[in-house]
Every structure is written in C-alpha cells, then in structure tokens.
Write a structure and sequence with these properties.
single chain, about 30% helix, five-stranded antiparallel beta sheet, eight-stranded antiparallel beta sheet
C-alpha cells in the first residue's frame, strides 16, 4: 500500500501520516535459485517469489501462462501455473472460495455446482484458468447480473518480482482496511506479479433459467429493441445480439437469458415480452438452445487461429451510433456480436497480412475512441503479434501505472510487451 501511495504522491505532500504510518517495518523478500531450465512451475507463492527475485537479479525475463510450456515471445523463461491448482478453502456459509490461480474456471464451477454454488464468471475458452481470466479481465454478458472480476474478487496472494509475497484484500465483503489492492490486479496482464491464489465471492445456483429469442433483420433495429427493455433487467443475466447460423431466414438473433427465482423469471419474461411488443418487435420465443452467455462464449472462443478478434467498448447508449460510424465494407467483411448491457461489440475477421489487419483494426478503433470508448485486440494470429498495437490508446494514468510497475517489478522481467506499461 505504501508503494501505491508513493506512486500517486512521490513527494509525500498529501495528508502525511494518515492511513499509513510514517515508519513501516522492512518488507520480507524471498530468496531462491534461478530456474535451472527455461521452464519452471512453482508450487507456492514463496517458491515463485524466490525464483522471480533470482530471475530479476540475473536479468532473465519471464512469460507467465497456465500451460506446461508455451510461446515465450522473446522472454527468457516460461513460468507455468500448472502446480497452483485446486480449491484451497471452500466456505459456503460465508459465500467465498479460495482457489489456486492455475485452476480452470470450468473445473472450479463443476466443483461448486455439486454444492449448489457458482462463481458467477464466464469464459470463452474451456481450459482458461482463474488467474489468467482475472489478469486479462475477460467478462461476459453475465456481468449484467453478477458483476465482473473486479466485483467478485475478494483477495489474492501475489508473488512479486522483487521477492515479496503480498496478500491483498480479505475473504469477506465488508473489508475497508486501506486501499482496495485486489482491483489493481484485475486486467494487469501478469505485469505486476504472479497470482498464486484467488478468493472469489460465491452465488447460489439460480433455481430457474430461461432464454428468450427473436429474429432481427437489422442491427440498428435489434439494438433499439434490446435497449427498450433495459429498465426491466433485474433477473436478466445476459442480452446479446448475435449472428444466426444458416439456414435461418434472418441474419441476427436477439437473446435474453433470465436467471433467479422461478417467480422472478416468470414476471420478467412477461414484462420483456410486453415491452418488445410496445416497441414494435415480434413476441420472443422461449428456446431450449444455448443461453446468451453460451452464444457469446462460442462466438469469441470459436475464432480460428488465423482470425482477429476485437472487443470495442462504448457507452451502451452509443451502440447504434458506433455501428453507424463503421464503414459498410467493414460491416460486410466482419462477424459481429453485441453484448447489449455492457456496451461491448465483438468483431471477428480473417484480416490477412499486417497492412489489411492494421487498417481493419484502425477502422474499428477510431469510432470507439471518438465516443470515449476503446477497441482492443483479444486475439491476433501469431504472425501479427509484433506488428499491431492491441491497445490503441494511452491512458491518462499511465505515469502512475509505470511507477507501480517499477516498484513491484523493478527489473521489468514480467510479461514484457504484454501491456501498455
């Protein structure tokens, strides 16, 4: 916390002595041996911190991943989280679970489902781990009802590259002791430290689930119909406008997935149906097919190795304006999915070489930036990694981000080139 304070206030001008004492005990730094090979898999936070400190001293950069071995993309070592798996603490009465960061989210939810519980987070990739998804801040349509990673993360243990082990947060919701450090880790892309375990909020499994769908001929119309129902979204856990697979007569389908008590789901179904009728839409049909969340997962996770996948984010009220700013030739050459509640537009395309890929990405990015949003690349073919900027903007807080990065990773060894810092 003192590191964060100094990143914002390096001259210690603001309220000295408040929150943090002037004199702090010296931090404990783990000491260890540098990995004997280019691939290593620590079994604890302390082992990881010691190895990272040795790598820092030796100037060996480290790429972090869940697989046993992977593409180091110029880094000296591959650090695998395969040994950091499994449920550490399951506390259903207190509605939290602590799990190794290398545990697949699907595996965690299979364990929790046996106890009628759920970690209400989504992934497009079946093997994606809790630590990887948190570090990448991948959120699906269910964020509408349950919140995203930043809302469900209670605390985490992190091995820093200077040999420290920090435990940020507490496994209770009502935690007001100092800065909310766990949120600093969400979306950090493994550039601040190695997540070794994560504590998440739990939610009881919904007693009822229902998905409504209706055909849509035009994206502008589909967005308008979805937005007309927005003030009814209480039990709604996801709203997407997605491409309809052939041989359907209409190119798009609008889907609403509702979860909760049976009475709530039933009442909200009637309200959404009536609101859609008032807006001139056809009555939605209950479907036994995939949920809105599953459709999103299939769209994002089903991209081929040669496809580019982009997530554009704009204020939800500007979704129609964003679409109107995208050139017609790009619309026709791209597959689209709209996450209505979160203001996310997902785009997939086989971009070809670096020049057409850059042009395609820039065409999606400029209208998003003009609407005070963003467009980031979620996936790029391997041959395009070096030539394209996946972020496309520099946040106003970049100097502070760099100061925190320099404090926690002074040698700059963690996931080089992975993030804007």
């Amino acid at each position: 916390m003192h590191d964060v304070k100094e990143a914002f206030d390096p001259d210690q001008l603001l309220n000295p002595g408040k929150i943090l004492p002037d004199v702090l005990p010296a931090a404990e730094h783990q000491r260890g041996q540098a990995p004997s090979s280019d691939v290593f898999a620590p079994q604890s936070a302390e082992e990881a911190a010691g190895a990272l400190a040795a790598c820092s001293a030796a100037g060996r950069s480290v790429r972090i991943g869940s697989a046993a071995e992977g593409d180091r993309r110029g880094a000296s070592c591959w650090l695998s989280t395969k040994q950091l798996q499994g449920v550490r603490t399951f506390a259903p009465d207190d509605l939290y679970v602590t799990v190794g960061a290398g545990t697949a989210l699907a595996e965690l939810n299979t364990y929790l489902a046996a106890h009628n519980m759920l970690a209400p987070l989504s992934t497009p990739w079946p093997g994606a781990t809790v630590g990887g998804l948190l570090a990448a801040n991948i959120n699906g349509p269910s964020r509408l009802k349950y919140g995203g990673w930043r809302d469900n993360l209670l605390c985490a243990t992190v091995a820093l590259a200077d040999g420290r082990v920090i435990r940020a947060g507490r496994p209770v919701v009502k935690n007001v002791a100092g800065y909310d450090l766990p949120k600093l880790l969400v979306g950090s892309r493994g550039t601040l430290g190695l997540l070794t375990d994560v504590t998440l909020k739990l939610t009881p499994l919904p007693r009822a689930e229902r998905t409504l769908q209706l055909p849509v001929d035009d994206i502008i119309q589909g967005v308008a119909w979805a937005q007309a129902t927005a003030n009814r979204w209480l039990a709604t856990a996801g709203v997407v406008l997605a491409p309809t697979p052939p041989p359907a007569k209409t190119p798009y389908t609008l889907l609403f997935t509702l979860e909760g008590l049976p009475e709530d789901v039933e009442a909200e179904t009637a309200e959404i149906t009536q609101t859609l009728r008032d807006a001139g839409a056809p009555a939605p049909q209950v479907t036994d097919g995939p949920t809105a969340i599953a459709i999103w997962s299939e769209f994002v996770g089903g991209a081929g190795a040669d496809e580019c996948v982009v997530r554009a984010g704009v204020p939800p009220q500007h979704l129609r304006l964003y679409w109107s700013m995208v050139p017609h030739e790009i619309r026709r050459a791209t597959a689209w999915l709209f996450d209505m509640a979160n203001g996310h537009v997902f785009a997939r395309s086989r971009c070809g070489g670096a020049i057409p890929a850059h042009r395609w990405l820039d065409t999606l990015r400029q209208p998003a930036l003009a609407l005070r949003g963003y467009a980031v690349a979620l996936h790029l073919p391997a041959q395009l990694h070096a030539g394209l900027d996946p972020w496309g903007y520099r946040p106003d807080g970049l100097p502070v981000m760099r100061r925190i990065k320099a404090r926690w990773d002074p040698a700059g060894i963690l996931n080089p080139g992975e993030f804007v810092v």
